[in-house]
Amino acid sequence: MERRKLFQGETWNYLCLEAELPSAGDFVAVHVGETPVIVTRDHDGEIYAFENRCSHRGSLLALEDRGNVKDFTCVYHAWTHNLQGDLVGIAFKDGIGGKGGMEKSFCMNSVGPRKLRVANVEGLIFGSFDEDVDDIEDYLGEEVLGRIRRVLQGRKVVVLGRFTQVLPNNWKLYVENTKDSYHASILHTFFTTFELNRLSQKGGIIVSPNGGCHVSYSEIDQAAEAEKAANNIYSEQKIRSQSDLELADKSLLGNFKEFDDDITLQILTVFPGFVLQQIQNSIAVRQVLPKGTDKMHLKWTYIGFEGDTAQQRRARHKLSNLIGPGGYVSMEDGCIGGFVRRGTEGASDTNAVLEMGGREIEGGDDRITEASIRGFWSEYRMRMGI
Amino acid sequence: MSTHVRHAEISALISAAQARYVREIDDGDCTAWPSFFVDDCFYTITSADNYAQNFEAGLVWLDSKDMLRDRILSLLEANVYERHSYRHLIGQPFVGEVDGDEVDSETAFMVARITREGPTDLFASGRYIDRYRVIAGEAKIVSRTVVLDSNRIDTLLGFPL
Ligand code: FES
Ligand SMILES: [Fe+2]
């Protein structure tokens, strides 16, 4: 059901970075939901995407994750597909010595892997199996689009590393978690334990018109910071004395000015399974992939930009300790899905309570709300027809 | 001392240090983990694929002994995760040519993870790509790159590998 109505329906699914396909003939093998897909750059400079499935009997066409090829010739019986996914050659098509071969009436255009409609948003490549899907700009909405531009700023992306995290829960539990800004200061105790969090932070949530995409962010409140500095030296010392735990090497959190606003954290999701993360200078894209009902893969691509100095690169690497399978603030996110899965076992006829911040799906300038999770479910139900 | 004898001696020091290292993680409380490193050490965990492509980012990326200490402190005091323990099996170190006090070495490992309710699972396999320095008769790690064979890593990379 999800495969047909969601991942192969009118949705936009993140495929890869444009930066991963610099030259003609480059390809990457990815997934949309559980369907294997190939993304290529052809000689016309355009990016194409099609199912990673041979026209003949369905073998995988790409056996590597990435590479550069002149075409996709299947290893099974050597049927050949071009870089746009069209079937262009059949081995022994006319048989041998007048015997065997394909029917005379057989038309190569009549079979072939399904093609995806492709969209490029600031170097992020999205694909849809449905030709009639809304244009991606409308799908994302003005505000979410603006927040993607805010992070990428038209810069040239450089891949710093790729990791795949295996999580023991349904993919939707992870999506809920990324939209759940309510848990952030409660579950993740790294910042509070070492007293690294700033109380003087403001922030908010943006939910896209349909509900499925969201942005949550927090920023330094300059006015509150200044006030604190001006008259609070005494009480600051008192705060410090409450805990004797301190990081010995604070360079872990050393950051540099990258954006012209005061937003230190921005988590952005695109329905159904894409995340763009900016945690200070740690920038990554994440892709949520279902693997059956109780397992999923979370593919992380850590990115930097051309023109980063060695020092800035180093800061990005250090800040990346906060995220990923063993990250100081996302180790918990990996585990919590498993806790919820085990906790809800045998309770399929019960409902969760999602009424923090009311029952609407509108954003606002506080983060103690479950509006974006309600938004996700509202869009999910609409697209699934339930 | 002949280079041959010196090589054998350093290999033995590395083996001994590694045996203590895995014992500290598997049967100790990890607090002595940083003591196996020199002060300006480097420790990272990556995958074979990332390593082959020269990608610098890591799942853990620490460039001082204090950062190693902080990692353990955070695990013990701050992070929320499911109780678990590791069991390391390590191979014989392959020790390169001795270069003054320092030497490169490579050791294969397998780590099983035991979680609170779960069975013993094979959690990771890979190799340590190390640079060791001999200080006062002890082999200390200058740099350790933990290269995981698989690009997939289960959630909860808690304790060090
Ligand atoms: S399955 Fe691909 S050529 Fe036969
Ligand atoms: Fe979280």
Automatic annotation (TrEMBL), chain A:
Organism: Pelagibacterium halotolerans (strain DSM 22347 / JCM 15775 / CGMCC 1.7692 / B2)
Domain of life where this protein originates: Bacteria
Positions of the Rieske domain: 13-90
Key word NAD present: yes
Family listed: Belongs to the bacterial ring-hydroxylating dioxygenase alpha subunit family.
PANTHER family found in the cross-reference section: 3-PHENYLPROPIONATE_CINNAMIC ACID DIOXYGENASE SUBUNIT ALPHA, CHOLINE MONOOXYGENASE, CHLOROPLASTIC
Keyword Zinc: no
InterPro entries, sorted: ARHD_Rieske_2Fe_2S, Rieske_2Fe-2S, Rieske_2Fe-2S_sf, Ring_hydroxy_dOase_asu_C_dom, Rng_hydr_dOase-A
Pfam family, one: Ring_hydroxyl_A
GO molecular function terms listed in the Swiss-Prot or TrEMBL record: 2 iron, 2 sulfur cluster binding; dioxygenase activity; iron ion binding
SUPFAM superfamilies to which the protein is assigned, alphabetical: Bet v1-like, ISP domain
Swiss-Prot/TrEMBL keywords: 2Fe-2S, Dioxygenase, Iron, Iron-sulfur, Metal-binding, NAD, Oxidoreductase
Name of the molecule in the record: Ortho-halobenzoate 1,2-dioxygenase alpha-ISP protein OhbB
From TrEMBL, chain B:
Pfam families per record: Ring_hydroxyl_B (PF00866)
GO terms for MF: dioxygenase activity
Cell membrane is among the record's keywords: no
InterPro entries, A to Z: NTF2-like_dom_sf (IPR032710), Rng_hydr_dOase-bsu (IPR000391)
Keywords: Dioxygenase, Oxidoreductase
Keyword Chloroplast attributed: no
Domain of life: Bacteria
Signal sequence annotation: none
Family: Belongs to the bacterial ring-hydroxylating dioxygenase beta subunit family.
Protein name, as recorded: Ortho-halobenzoate 1,2-dioxygenase beta-ISP protein OhbA
Protein's organism: Pelagibacterium halotolerans (strain DSM 22347 / JCM 15775 / CGMCC 1.7692 / B2)
